[in-house]
Design goal:
It comes from Gordonia asplenii. The protein is of the alpha/beta class. Helix content is 30%, strand content 20%. Helix 3 packs parallel to helix 4 (171-183) and helix 4 packs parallel to helix 5 (195-204).
Length: 369
Amino acid sequence: MSSTAPTPGSRNRGRVAIINARVFDGTTLLDPATVVIDGTVIGEDAAGAEMIDAAGAVLLPGFIDAHVHIDAPEQLHTLAAWGVTTGLDMACWPADRVAALRRVRGGADFRSAGLPAIGDGGPHSCMPGMDADAIVRTPEDARRHVAQRVSEGVDYIKGVAEAPGDGGPSSEVLHALVAAAREHGRKTVIHAGSRGAYTMAVESGAEFITHVPLDGVIDPRDIAAMKANRQSVIPTMTMMEGILAKVAPHAPIDHLIASVGALHGGGVEIIAGTDANTAPGPPARVEHGESLHHEFELMAAAGLTPAEILRCATVRPAAAFGLSDRGVIAPGKRADLLLVEGDPTADITATRNVRAVWCAGVEHAPAGR
């Protein structure tokens, strides 16, 4: 299933000093400086290091895609080729597949919710290969689901909300899922693809809501509640755009953009994610890696500045998901780095100009090179 060795597209150079790099500090670009990669982390001593001249290119923390679906090691390497050094998987099973993907080296770091919690009548229950153990009908089912996932070593819990009457878990079950996850020291991500599901997801108290509604702009009351509850959103506009393109070709996506603009204007923390997937079953195919750059462009259309967008894919998801070893470029942090040509703080499309990528210090061949 997986390999513990880097693929032919990656290599470990040992100690490396990247000189003349303009480093993004989370707000702006600093004057050209030297960043040292010492094994798997960012070091301080450049003595004896192999020198790489960035020649004024921009060095960013590796990107985190906060909503992907991974079922093969190659997808982790595809993420890395586009500068995505961490993939937060939102549904992967069985447990031995999750364990195998964790052992992949040289590609994006893999974190997972394992098997999601779903209702017995919603669209997810009809997806090919869905495990019957995913179905939760009662609060006790939800508590058992969380305990089982925790025993498998998941990083967080994933639940699926549907609009009332659409076959998803009840509000009571979603509340039990979130409460049980907290008791086990895990955060919860709740899927919500419609306005009605959104209200249920927000009321569940989950730390993260993923997607924006397909059927209209989010209710302002839900946005206010999310702000008050300090809930974060992973919009995945790329996936929602893909679904609309399939069911209603040429349909406008203005309401997707408007929802994210309203969330941003309402002070809700936004985290970048795509719902990247290539397996059969999901309503739209979203390519791994490249799709995050498209998501950035949609976020810009919603009114986020380039610097805000970069934070949405680096320091924000790292802090929100408890990944304290990444998201910033600083000594001792994981050497997840992305070197790009151009200035992404002025033009977010510059993130596509990938020159070099390092995942925990292992250099990975960038896309198109």
